[in-house]
Amino acid sequence: xxxxxxxxxxxxxxxxxxxxxxxxxxxxxxxxxxxxxxxxxxxxxxxxxxxxxxxxxxxxxxxxxxxxxxxxxxxxxxxxxxxxxxxxxxxxxxxxxxxxxxxxxxxxxxxxxxxxxxxxxxxxxxxxxxxxxxxxxxxxxxxxxxxxxxxxxxxxxxxxxxxxxxxxxxxxxxxxxxxxxxxxxxxxxxxxxxxxxxxxxxxxxxxxxxxxxxxxxxxxxxxxxxxxxxxxxxxxxxxxxxxxxxxxxxxxxxxxxxxxxxxxxxxxxxxxxxxxxxxxxxxxxxxxxxxxxxxxxxxxxxxxxxxxxxxxxxxxxxxxxxxxxxxxxxxxxxxxxxxxxxxxxxxxxxxxxxxxxxxxxxxxxxxxxxxxxxxxxxxxxxxxxxxxxxxxxxxxxxxxxxxxxxxxxxxxxxxxxxxxxxxxxxxxxxxxxxxxxxxxxxxxxxxxxxxxxxxxxxxxxxxxxxxxxxxxxxxxxx
Length: 478
Description:
By secondary structure, the chain is an alpha+beta fold. The protein has helices spanning 3-18, 23-30, 34-41, 49-59, 63-66, 74-86, 89-94, 107-126, 131-147, 153-165, 175-184, 221-235, 244-262, 265-277, 283-290, 294-308, 353-356, 430-436, 464-477, and strands spanning 188-191, 202-204, 209-212, 314-319, 324-329, 367-373, 376-386, 391-399, 414-416. α1 (3-18) packs antiparallel against α6 and α12 (221-235) crosses α13. The model has no long low-confidence stretch (mean pLDDT 88). GO terms for molecular function: DNA binding; DNA-binding transcription factor activity.
């Protein structure tokens, strides 16, 4: 039975009891049959407005008192909750018989049943998504962004207005300006050296503080981006994620907002359009003009390229083992994917620029290459970098016909890739196979993530106990 009808029935019974009236007495006063009143009080029948008016008059209360959304007492609240529980899909999955909140069921037992189910619901909500579910959700998000040309104009608009309101007009966005943006929303940036290890930043909503680590990553982009990402949750009106897909969507949006603040749309478009006019688009120039990382500049380029430069493009971040960490393409490049369309962890052809760039001894500048693939010929500019755990490459590219707008288009580097055909680069040559087949026994490196569960919790991977202890400690410090 609908919980709202049961709540209404509980309130009618409550006010009847307060008035000291029996069902028969109410029936005599209102002309409503006692049997009908009983069905109303048990939530099995919805009363008409005329009946509600008559009942309210008989009880000496307003109709709005009967229609309030608050349970009249604790017992009623528990009975309504039990009704919701036994009607839920999660309860149905348990295969248990229905429990009725009869008068003989002690309130203590009712409290225990409801409490146990609420805990089971909480664990169900906070349980980790399976890796397959997470990959599926991420793939759907990637497809959506591909349809949008990797462009979120509403977030761009909000970010540009906030940066302008903070008084920033030229050059790289300063830490001071980021602090001013946070202050405009009622938050103070505080840098601490005891941030919980499971969190990149922590926002204290009660005291208006955003806690950040004390040191930035090279280039100064790190702390500004972290602060802007924390601010973005407030600006974009995010609620606690309801599932892993929602978490991934929020993460994408806060990253986009941070990039849109660091590289405001109007100035970025002007810079890139000028470079295109000169046939000299270079991600390294875009990076340096706004004081951000190469990866941030590459991603931002793809945000704006389709809608404002009339360029379809692709982007790849590839780890030194050849696995895709991040990818985007709307120019026809066929990024390797599994049967479900997921690209993360898929191995890129050894002949693509994303992997050829690792073979260079001089990596201070971008590496340029044309690659002939079954889907066409593509031009790429690639830069390599190093994280705390591995090397990686960032490739931005376009189809052959659009290479004319980019620096490095005159490169003589060219490779032919027939991947995903196994004979391209995944099989050893016949000479090597004849020499070593059956004679090699490598000890495979075990990747820690293979056996690791997906991070659990409403904010996946975050240790609530650690975060709450951190907030309590700093709240006491003032």
